[in-house]
Amino acid sequence: MSKLNALIAGSTGYIGIQLVKLLIKHPNINIKYLCGNTSEGKSIAHFDKSIKNKKLPKIIKFNKNLLNDVDVVFTALPNGESQKVSNYLLKKNILIDLSADFRLNNAKEYLKWYKIKHNSKKNIKNSIYALPEITKKKLKNYKIISCPGCYPTSILLPLIPLLKNKLIKTNNIIIDSKSGYSGAGRGVHKKYSNKNLYESLSAYGVGFHRHNSEIQQELNKLAKKNIEFSFTPHLSPMFRGILSTIYLDLNNNISLKFVNSKLKKFYKNDLFVKILPINSFISTNDVINTNYCHVSVCKSKYKNKLIILSAIDNLIKGGAGQAVQNLNYYFGYNVKNGLV
């Protein structure tokens, strides 16, 4: 069976390294090029010794001529950089982007939230916000596959079925999320040098975290009206994993059992979303190093209220694993390839 040639731009960051690890074991992928701006000539094993002894190319700087030799381009780059790559795409290339560059449908919204002018507006219409379980049948219509952020992944997976089935009120959704510090990238130690990352919990981006924009966009699109929610992220003293706790008001006379059954039915054919028994206490430890999302419906002490717990690995289900899952759906591969 012939393999697709892949290029990974941004291969030395936390997400890039994770992507390399997954694609190494993917039976349909040949890693043709590894690209990095400041690590030219180095081996990828320099950044993660567990990749030692793998037959992988040395890291080189990206240039548009490399696109002639590849089928799939993965971009795990700083925001703004994937737009530049997208402008060079050939007819044969598919771009799977792990940054925020094509998550927002409106260039003005991108400027507002990311403070960067969008340099590939023409390609926005060629892109899809690709939460795999939700968009898998639509991917083939697009050239640019934009993977959601890690927090939104943990939040949208449980919320979308509830909104689709009109089970919850839409004017007071409260979301509290805690992430391992790898979610902030390799620069996290410089950025938070005044905090003890290993022994403290820190709130940040309160009220205005960038991921608000894509959560708002996707929920509004689904509900066809403005959804009111509050989202507060926290950095936790762990390397990887996200646990989101979502507080919801139920529509009248909706039971927990009914909510749980609707979630199970919605994801019955999706391997990587596990709806657990009611009132299951879940942990990031249950999902780290996997592409799974675990969801638990929990009782509140108040009538007509509900608490949802959602756990993922931010580097896999919230990043590289989601990209590989989208790859598998796009090309019709077994969804397990590279992931199980």
Q: What does this protein look like?
A:
The chain is an alpha/beta fold and 340 residues long. It has two domains: 4-147 and 318-331, NAD(P)-binding Rossmann-like Domain (Rossmann fold, 3-Layer(aba) Sandwich); 151-314, 2-Layer Sandwich (Dihydrodipicolinate Reductase, domain 2). 27% of the residues lie in helices and 21% in strands. It has helices at 14-24, 81-86, 107-114, 121-124, 132-135, 150-164, 188-191, 211-223, 256-266, 316-331, and strands at residues 4-9, 29-35, 59-60, 72-75, 94-97, 127-129, 144-146, 173-180, 202-203, 229-236, 242-249, 273-275, 293-299, 305-312. The longest helix is centred in the C-terminal third of the chain and has 16 residues, at 316-331. The mean pLDDT is 95.
Topology:
Layout: E1 4-9, H1 14-24, E2 29-35, E3 59-60, E4 72-75, H2 81-86, E5 94-97, H3 107-114, H4 121-124, E6 127-129, H5 132-135, E7 144-146, H6 150-164, E8 173-180, H7 188-191, E9 202-203, H8 211-223, E10 229-236, E11 242-249, H9 256-266, E12 273-275, E13 293-299, E14 305-312, H10 316-331
Parallel strand pairs: 1-2, 1-4, 2-3, 4-5, 5-7, 6-7, 8-10, 12-13
Antiparallel strand pairs: 8-11, 9-10, 11-14, 13-14
Helix pairs in contact: 1-10, 6-8
